[in-house]
């Protein structure tokens, strides 16, 4: 990290943590800024959360994500190893949190103190906007707890976004057009 000489391992861990915080902030902005929400709602329009949901993103949103991370990498001089490790650590958690599995409630609660679980993240895919506007973390749940956006595990009444559940909205062309509707 620039300006602070940390040994390699702590610098790498700090870099991964800073990149995870950046992704939390990016995700939160994706719900708060209308232009970003129009892109991000492709992800939320899925009618059944499963591992494919973790890959369901508008191409423009995919292109914007590295810009957020890039600013953090440059501003803090994050080590190349941390930049390499962050997606390797985050991707399995991202797939896990979208998996259509129900952990035993006690295990879900314990794991959710550290990482995002499928039960914790399912709340984020609720049709009820206050629930969808919570649990933004991608890897470490610390950020939701620290910034007051944590909601406990609860099965939402409905998943998806009103107005985007017609079959035509669920096609590739429908998803690509979603931000412009």
Question: How would you concisely characterize the structure shown here?
Answer:
With 181 residues, the chain is mainly α. Helices cover 56% and strands 0% of the residues.
Give an overview in words.
The protein has helices at about 10-30, 35-45, 60-75, 80-100, 105-110, 120-125, 130, 140-145, 170-175. By secondary structure, the chain is mostly helical. The protein has one domain. Helix 1 (about 10-30) crosses helix 2 (about 35-45) and helix 1 packs across helix 4. The longest helix has 25 residues, at about 10-30. The protein is globular, with a radius of gyration of 17 Å.
The shape, in one word, is: globular
Order of helices and strands: HHHHHHHHH
Distance between the termini: 42 Å
Q: Mind telling me the C-alpha Rg?
A: 17 Å
* Spans of at least 5 consecutive residues with low confidence: none
The largest sheet is: none
- Beta-strand share of residues: under 5%
Task: Give the key terms.
181 residues; mainly alpha; 9 helices; 56% helix
Element layout with pairings:
Layout: H1 8-32, H2 34-44, H3 59-76, H4 80-98, H5 105-111, H6 118-124, H7 129-132, H8 142-146, H9 172-177
Helix pairs in contact: 1-2, 1-3, 1-4
């Amino acid at each position: 990290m620039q300006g602070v000489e940390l040994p390699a391992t702590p610098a790498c861990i700090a870099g991964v943590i800073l990149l995870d915080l950046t992704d939390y902030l990016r995700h939160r902005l994706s719900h708060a800024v209308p232009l970003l929400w129009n892109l991000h709602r492709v992800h939320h329009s899925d009618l059944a959360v499963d591992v494919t949901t973790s890959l369901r993103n508008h191409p423009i949103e995919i292109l914007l994500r590295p810009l957020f991370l890039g600013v953090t990498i440059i501003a803090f001089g994050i080590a190349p190893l941390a930049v390499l490790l962050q997606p390797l650590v985050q991707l399995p958690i991202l797939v896990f949190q979208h998996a259509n599995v129900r952990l035993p409630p006690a295990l879900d609660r314990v794991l959710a103190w550290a990482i995002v679980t499928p039960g914790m993240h399912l709340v984020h895919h609720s049709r009820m906007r206050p629930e969808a506007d919570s649990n933004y973390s991608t890897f470490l749940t610390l950020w939701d707890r620290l910034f007051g956006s944590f909601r406990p595990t609860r099965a939402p009444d409905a998943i998806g976004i009103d107005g985007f559940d017609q079959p035509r909205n669920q096609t590739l062309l429908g998803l690509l057009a979603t931000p412009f509707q």
